[in-house]
Specification:
alpha/beta, Nucleotidyltransferase, domain 5, 6-stranded mixed beta sheet, 3 helices, elongated
């Protein structure tokens, strides 16, 4: 015997298997995927900047991870918004004559490293990272001295804070 089809419902009279049409479901999933890719592809972070710091611009898009903030302005050096030492004409005003090592910065970073181990802040990071807020008007020698000091204190990896281009 043949099956009878109802014109109204489109179903056969013998109770056969139903066919699922997933076209509309795929449309919804595609729209959702595009929405998520568009809104989560960039990871802008709100970072407090010092008023006198003028950051360089960049078009790089590397994801943000938590790090120690080191701020180098024209007049002062800060770690996590705490004053470390004054800066005058690109030179650090400290008791040491060693241009490669800034002793107050070294001591502050070592203390933070010990505190991080205690709090286990860097659970996901293999190596500790420093986000470096350096004024673009500074000389390389000044920036390099801070980088070398941070590396000797146990922070060899840097990320420079920049304004999005």
């Amino acid at each position: 015997m043949g099956r009878t089809w109802s014109r109204r419902t489109g179903k056969s009279g013998s109770g056969g298997t139903a066919v699922l049409n997933i076209t509309s479901l795929m449309d919804v999933m595609t729209i959702l995927l595009i929405f998520l890719l568009y809104h989560f592809s960039t990871q802008d972070q709100n970072i407090r900047l010092q008023k006198e710091i003028e950051l360089p611009r960049s078009s790089s898009e590397k994801p943000f991870k938590w790090a120690i903030n080191v701020t180098l302005g024209l007049n002062r050096l800060l770690v996590e918004d705490e004053f470390v030492c004054p800066v005058k004409d690109g030179r650090f005003i400290v008791g040491s004559d060693d241009p490669e090592k800034i002793v107050p910065l070294y001591n502050r970073l070592v203390a933070l490293k010990d505190l991080e181990k205690y709090r286990q802040v860097e659970r996901d990071a293999a190596e500790p990272v420093v986000i470096f807020h350096a004024d673009k008007r500074l000389k390389f020698e000044t920036v390099n001295a801070v980088m070398k000091t941070a590396a000797t204190a146990g922070y060899p990896n840097f990320r420079f804070a920049v304004l999005k281009h």
